[in-house]
Amino acid sequence: MNKINTILAGALAATLLCGSALAQEVTLRIHQMLPAQATIPAKAIVPWAAAVEEQSGGRIKFELYPAMQLGGAPPSLFDQAKDGVVDIIWTVLGYTPGRFPKSEVFEMPFLVTTGEATSVAFQKYVEANAMDEFAGVHVIAVHTHGPGLFHTKDPVNKLEDLAGMKIRGGSRVISDMLGRLGAEPIGMPVPAVTEALSKGVIDGTTIPWEVTPSLKVAELVKNHTGFSGANGLYTQTFGFVMNLDSYNNLPDDLKAIIDANSGVETARMFGRVMDAGDAAGLAIAEGLGNNIITLDDVETARWKAAAQPTIDQWFTDMDGQGIDGRALYEKALALVAAESGM
C-alpha cells in the first residue's frame, strides 16, 4: 500500500511540475510599422526573437506583426506597448514630437557617424540621462540608423538646389533642419514615403540608404545626395520596448533571458544591421545607374553652418523645459566620438 501511495505521490508531483512549467510559457506579440522584409524586421527583430526563443527552451514564443497589422498608425506604437495593447513594439521615437526631449539630441545635424557606433552611444546616453522618458515601459534597446541623406527627383549639388523642394522629414528636429536649409519640410512616417513620391506630394525624402529598398525609392527618384566627412547629415532614434506588465509577469529565469538580450549589445546589433542595410541600399541605386552625389568638404561646411540654428533652437527649447541641452549635446558628441574611434 505504501508503495502505491509513493507512486501516486510521485505521479501527482510530476503532474504539478509539468503544470507549473506549462504555466510559465508565454507568447509575446511584437508590432511594428515596416514590411516584414525591411531591414530591422528581417535582420534584427527576427534573429533577436529566435535567440530568445532558443535560450528559453521554447518557453518564450513570439508572434510578429509587421506593417501595423494590429491596427493604429506608427505614432501610436509606443502607447500600444505602454497601454498593453501589444507586448513589444519597435518604433521611431520622433513620431511623437516633444515626448522624448532629451533623446532628441541624437537627431541633431551632423552628429551621426555609423549606425553601430551611434546606436551604442545612444543606448549608453539614454541609460545615463534619459530613462525617465521611458517610464511605463521596459526598454529592451534603443538605437539609431546610419547617416541620413537626400533622395530627390532633381539633383542637389549645392545648398541652393534644395530651395523650395518639398522634402519629407521624419521628426520635429529633422523638419526644423530642413526648413533652415531652404526646403519645404513635409512631415510623415516612413511607410507613407513611397506613395507620396509616386503621387508628387513630395519632391524627395530624407532617409538612410537601408530603408530605400523596401520603399522602392531608388526606382522612384534618381538622385541621392550625401556628405563628406565622418558625420552624416542626421539620424533618427528608435525604441524597442516592452509592456511593463508583460515583462514583470515573467518568471525570474525568463526575465533574465530578456535582460541578456537587452542593452548595449542589442543596440549594437541593431545598428550593425542598419549599416549592412545602408550598403545594400547603395548597391541597388548604383546598379540602377542612379546619380549618387557626395558633397565635398567645402560644400559640406556650408550645410553645417546652415544647420547650426537647429541645434541652437534645440538648446533654447530645452532651456524652456528646465533641461541643460548644451550639457546633453556635449555628452552625446563625446559618446559618439568615443564609440566611433574619433
Describe this structure in words.
With 342 residues, the protein is of the alpha/beta class. It has helices at 2-23, 39-55, 77-82, 115-129, 172-180, 193-198, 212-215, 217-220, 244-248, 252-260, 264-287, 297-320, 325-340, and strands at 26-32, 60-65, 88-92, 137-144, 149-152, 166-169, 184-187, 204-207, 223-227, 237-243, 291-295. Strand 6, helix 5 (172-180) and strand 7 form a beta-alpha-beta unit. Helix 4 (115-129) runs antiparallel to helix 11 (264-287). The termini are far apart. Mean pLDDT is 94; it is low at 6-23.
Order of helices and strands: HEHEHEHEEEHEHEHHEEHHHEHH
The DSSP helix count reads 13
Rg measurement, Å? 23 Å
Number of strands: 11
Identify the quaternary structure here: single chain
**Low-confidence runs of at least 5 consecutive residues:** 6-23
Widest sheet: strand order?
7-6-8-5-9-11
N- and C-termini, Cα separation: 78 Å
Class derived from helix and strand content:
alpha/beta
Query: What is the percentage of strand-forming residues?
Result: 15-25%
Shape: globular
Q: Outline the biggest β-sheet.
A: 6 strands, mixed
Topology summary:
Elements (H helix, E strand, L loop, with lengths): L1 H22 L2 E7 L6 H17 L4 E6 L11 H6 L5 E5 L22 H15 L7 E8 L4 E4 L13 E4 L2 H9 L3 E4 L5 H6 L5 E4 L4 H4 L1 H4 L2 E5 L9 E7 H5 L3 H9 L3 H24 L3 E5 L1 H24 L4 H16 L2
Parallel strand pairs: 1-2, 1-3, 6-7, 6-8, 9-11
Antiparallel strand pairs: 3-10, 4-10, 5-8, 5-9
Helix pairs in contact: 2-11, 4-11, 4-13, 5-12
